[in-house]
């Protein structure tokens, strides 16, 4: 009897937490297709008439197309470079068991502890000196630098679980280190690579604080910045603001739903094997 009561209480708790989590998304969806009068009269009810024009007006007035282009370019470029650099670095760190590479590993661990706020001002000054402020390339470089430590630690833990015998057999057959890595090790790293791609994509795409620091001109604003300024400029037109929010979420939501099985699996395997 007590066990049944505990299960029911736990189920109720899960339902409450679920409602608490999805309620903001529900409000955003219904407000994005509501008119002004309906927002006042029926705040939480589904609209009687769906106003799809909120989406078209939001796109037209927010310069959303340019923001989406900027976000896609910075995200794809940063994630590609991060993936290429970190997979090779993680492989070397995982396989070379000496003081130098152990020191590099712990430097990466220490780098993850440093918050962005502590180096925000020096980064801004450096980007200004290098004439990379308000450029997409400057933002890409900064994101690569910040994501390398996390990705190397994630991937190196996975690489340690790959049997060395496969590499030794290839070396006996005359394969070089690049051939061993790209033909044997790299294909085996697919689960953790997909995991890192998803996590880094989420991080770069959703970045707001670094974007606000480095991308101040309208021509280089990405999706998060466009949302921020558009919401401030249209605080009265909540329908347009929430419509833009839904549009901004669609690409990353599709990616997450498509590859979500690799996120937990990759992190778990990397942690266990590390």
From TrEMBL:
Q: Which InterPro entries match?
A: BP-dep_ABC_trans_perm, MetI-like, MetI-like_sf
- Spell out the Pfam families in the cross-references: BPD_transp_1
Per the UniProt record, which residue ranges are transmembrane? 12-33, 72-93, 105-125, 137-159, 180-202, 238-259
Subcellular localization? Cell membrane
Cite the Gene3D superfamilies for this sequence: MetI-like
Keyword terms, alphabetized:
Cell membrane, Membrane, Transmembrane, Transmembrane helix, Transport
Q: Where is the ABC transmembrane type-1 domain?
A: 68-259
Query: Is Transmembrane helix set as a keyword in this record?
Result: yes
GO biological process terms held by the UniProt record: transmembrane transport
Family of this protein: Belongs to the binding-protein-dependent transport system permease family.
- Please state what the protein is called: ABC transmembrane type-1 domain-containing protein
